[in-house]
């Protein structure tokens, strides 16, 4: 059995939905399709939340815009008038519910974590019903299945939930399993699940990959295919390094680190449910389906020159917490980290020294994190500094922890380009280390490191 997942970049219009259908029908074995929202819809829903808080009159415009987009795609894609009528009715019902939620935000002048997660789940809820309609219009048995209706159970953390694999497995064996037994193609919403209390909880942005992993674990799938608009992982971002080459195979750990460091191809959490059973992941290109994509497996291999890829992200900021002895005084780090996490901010990494604690956070969280720590900090803290113009470079490859001289080669390569390293973290992972440089130097640094290890 295959679990096949398509993201928003592959779901843009009626043609792309039919492309998904055609790819599914190439597969003769049992399969479950996991879908993200149509491209751009989750961002529109985020905007809808912000707008609803400020302007009641704009709610109707937002609803009309999102409704029209889905109606157009459904009308163009579903080639049976009776089935189309059914799907359009479902879209209308869901949009009415979304409208009530947005007006509720306007009336209460408040967005709760619970309401945010529910609203942001609507893109996936709409997407799967359009796909069901396309299959049915072609005479193919299919059923749209929303995660909170079929028993994908979570720990209840809004915005960044984790699946309860034991209970979810039991539920999906029944709900999805019986559809497969009937020869039906289940089309399942990605991105969210349901808490034990019955609330919709998101897996975080990009979390549809995680959903595919959860289903694969629950149904003992033999592979997960993640379909994108690229062939797979590369040795560097080809937008920066034109000579970057395709990577045919990675380990779970390597793929997870590359995703964490900014390679947007895969969500790092997909590995968690797959690792216990060693279920492989294959990255496939929806626009070139015959191309062999990157295969990601439990066990990796060591490249002769160790490094397989250089990833980067500009989407980070650094908070420096300074003071004599802050790095060794008991309780300072835990107090500051708790202060941040209580407000839903994820700390990507921590680098400590005797006189400084450094939190690396997403750029969107930087300002709030800075304000929180300036307002509420330990007496040992003398100053809290915000660093905005920073970029993170991740260097990834099996064998890194047992190969001498890699860091020295990296430093020498970027030093020749007159790039200074602001911070480094080495040893936390067996397959990766990262460094932070000024954002304006990112292109020079990535190119220099790639040239050192790949000679191009």
Report the biggest beta sheet as strand number plus sense, adding barrel if it closes: 8 strands, mixed
The CATH topology assignment of the largest domain is Carbamate kinase
Helix content: 40-55%
CATH architecture of the largest domain: 3-Layer(aba) Sandwich
Distance between the termini: 40 Å
Structural class: alpha/beta
**3D shape:** globular
Q: Helical segment tally?
A: 15
CATH superfamily label of the largest domain: Acetylglutamate kinase-like
Q: What percent strand?
A: 15-25%
Radius of gyration of CA atoms, rounded to a whole number: 23 Å
**Number of structurally distinct domains:** 2
- E-strand count: 17
What does this 3D model show about the protein?
The protein is of the alpha/beta class and about 450 residues long. It folds into 2 domains: about 1-230, 3-Layer(aba) Sandwich (Carbamate kinase), CATH 3.40.1160.10; about 310-455, 2-Layer Sandwich (VC0802-like). It is about 40% helix and about 20% strand. It is built from 15 helices and 17 strands. The protein has helices at about 15-25, 40-55, 55-75, 80-110, 115-120, 120-135, 145-150, 165-180, 210-220, 250-260, 270-275, 330-340, 365-375, 405-415, 440-455; strands at about 1-5, 30-35, 140-145, 155, 185-190, 190-195, 200, 225-230, 250, 280-285, 295, 310-320, 345-355, 355-360, 385-395, 425, 430-440. It has an 8-stranded mixed sheet, sandwiched between helices. A 6-stranded antiparallel sheet has the order 13-14-12-15-17-16. It has a 3-stranded mixed sheet with strand order 4-6-7. Helix 1 (about 15-25) crosses helix 3 and helix 4 (about 80-110) packs antiparallel against helix 6. It starts with a strand and ends with a helix. The model has no long low-confidence stretch (mean pLDDT about 95).
């Amino acid at each position: 059995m295959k679990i096949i997942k398509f993201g928003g970049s592959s779901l843009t219009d009626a043609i792309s939905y039919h492309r998904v259908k055609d790819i599914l029908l190439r597969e003769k074995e049992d399969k479950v399709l996991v879908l993200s929202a149509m491209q751009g819809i989750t961002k529109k829903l985020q905007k809808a939340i912000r707008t609803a808080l400020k302007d009641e009159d704009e709610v109707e415009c937002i609803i009309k815009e999102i409704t029209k987009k889905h109606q157009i795609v459904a009308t163009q894609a579903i080639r049976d008038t009776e089935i189309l009528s059914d799907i359009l009715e479902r879209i209308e019902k869901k949009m009415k519910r979304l409208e009530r939620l947005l007006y509720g935000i306007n009336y209460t002048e408040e967005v709760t974590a619970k309401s945010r997660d529910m609203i942001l789940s609507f893109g996936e809820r709409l997407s799967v019903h359009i796909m069901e309609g396309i299959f049915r219009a072609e005479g193919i048995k299919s059923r749209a299945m929303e995660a909170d209706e079929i028993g994908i159970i979570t720990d209840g953390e809004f915005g960044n939930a984790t699946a309860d694999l034991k209970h979810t497995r039991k539920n999906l064996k029944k709900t999805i399993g019986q559809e497969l037994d009937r020869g039906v193609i289940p089309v399942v919403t990605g991105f969210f699940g349901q808490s034990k209390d019955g609330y919709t909880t998101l897996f975080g942005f990009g979390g549809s990959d995680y959903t595919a992993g959860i289903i694969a674990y629950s149904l003992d799938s033999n592979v997960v295919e993640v379909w994108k608009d690229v062939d797979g992982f590369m040795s560097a971002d080809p937008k920066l390094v034109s000579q970057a080459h395709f990577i045919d195979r990675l380990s779970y750990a390597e793929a997870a680190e590359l995703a964490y460091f900014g390679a947007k191809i895969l969500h790092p959490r997909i590995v968690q449910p797959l690792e216990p059973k060693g279920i492989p992941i294959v990255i496939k290109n929806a626009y070139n389906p015959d191309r062999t994509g990157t295969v990601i497996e439990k066990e990796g291999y060591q490249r002769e020159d160790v490094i397989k890829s250089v990833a980067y992200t500009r989407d980070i900021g650094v908070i420096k917490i300074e003071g004599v002895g802050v790095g060794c005084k008991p309780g300072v780090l835990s107090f500051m980290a708790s202060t941040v996490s209580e407000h839903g901010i994820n700390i990507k990494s921590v680098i400590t020294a005797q006189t400084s604690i450094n939190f690396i956070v997403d750029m969107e969280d930087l300002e709030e994190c800075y304000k929180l720590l300036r307002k509420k900090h330990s007496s040992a803290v003398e100053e809290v500094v915000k660093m905005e113009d920073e970029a993170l470079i991740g260097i990834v490859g099996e064998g890194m922890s047992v190969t001498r001289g890699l860091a020295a080669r990296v430093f020498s390569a970027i030093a020749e380009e007159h790039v200074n390293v602001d911070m480094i973290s080495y040893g936390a992972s067996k397959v990766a280390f990262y460094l932070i440089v000024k954002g304006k130097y990112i292109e020079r640094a990535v190119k220099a490191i790639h040239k050192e290890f790949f000679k191009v």
